Amino acid sequence: xxxxxxxxxxxxxxxxxxxxxxxxxxxxxxxxxxxxxxxxxxxxxxxxxxxxxxxxxxxxxxxxxxxxxxxxxxxxxxxxxxxxxxxxxxxxxxxxxxxxxxxxxxxxxxxxxxxxxxxxxxxxxxxxxxxxxxxxxxxxxxxxxxxxxxxxxxxxxxxxxxxxxxxxxxxxxxxxxxxxxxxxxxxxxxxxxxxxxxxxxxxxxxxxxxxxxxxxxxxxxxxxxxxxxxxxxxxxxxxxxxxxxxxxxxxxxxxxxxxxxxxxxxxxxxxxxxxxxxxxxxxxxxxxxxxxxxxxxxxxxxxxxxxxxxxxxxxxxxxxxxxxxxxxxxxxxxxxxxxxxxxxxxxxxxxxxxxxxxxx
Length: 360
Fold this sequence. Notes:
alpha/beta; Rossmann fold; 2 domains; 6-stranded parallel sheet; 41% helix; 16% strand; globular
């Protein structure tokens, strides 16, 4: 089995899309499924104006066609809606090759935060992009329902996992700060709604890990918070494990992988009851969801760390990768290719039950 994944988001970017694709490939390749990425590597790139850390490849349909012609893939998955995604989409449509896509980021809301572009227009562009494919993979049931209401067709559920060994309660580092410690980790940008956390009257200390265009303004507006900058996953895990509550104020994330990472380190979560937290936390008891974020933060202090960890253990990359293959099987079953669909479902089962999956 050989799968091509086209993505505009790739190393050295550090974000949920890149971490998801890397973890997916690792889980699939452990069972002998070959994954090839078509990414910005090897192409000239330019920074995205409102996301300077994201670089877009200067690539068009002709160069993509030249690269892909003569190659044999069992399936093509397009992960992002940038130049590479559009060029591979064009190639698949021109050659009659089936493909799936995935919806990772709420770009219409993010663009609206910065530019006077109506969301209906941005969603119309995305709808046209994704509806040309044979299935749209989304991280949560609520996102699938919302996108269907917006006219997106053929949603397929593809959840996420977490590395239970890398993100573990035993990773805690010593923190010489007043307790309790409330932590946020992620991109520092307007759409993350960070003032809703940093402006709260809370006891103890507030820690912020990450970087982004809003960092300087946030540091100036909230000097009492401790801004630690970006850090690799291993360093981040030590802060998750040392903090008392992980605070996730975002209203626009489609999933929020940092929530799973914090839970895996035994850190309870305080978040708003919006899409993302409602799906990952729900009524699990691993966190508190409340539009009164201060109340959620304080109530989350009473959650046993064991309960947070136990909920995170229900999310694995092996399950996520198996779900990914099952979705592709659904596509080929619909297209009248039962033999390939059966092969994919067999592979999905093997991935889910793989002995190489991380120990819990």
